Amino acid sequence: MRVYISVPMKGRTDAEILNERRKAIEIIKADNPYEDIKVIDNFFREESRNDNPLWCLGESLKKLSTADLAFFGKGWKDARGCRIEFASAIAYGIEFLIQYD
Question: Which of 4, 17, 36, 98 has its CA 20 to 30 A from that of 76?
Answer without folding.
Answer: 36
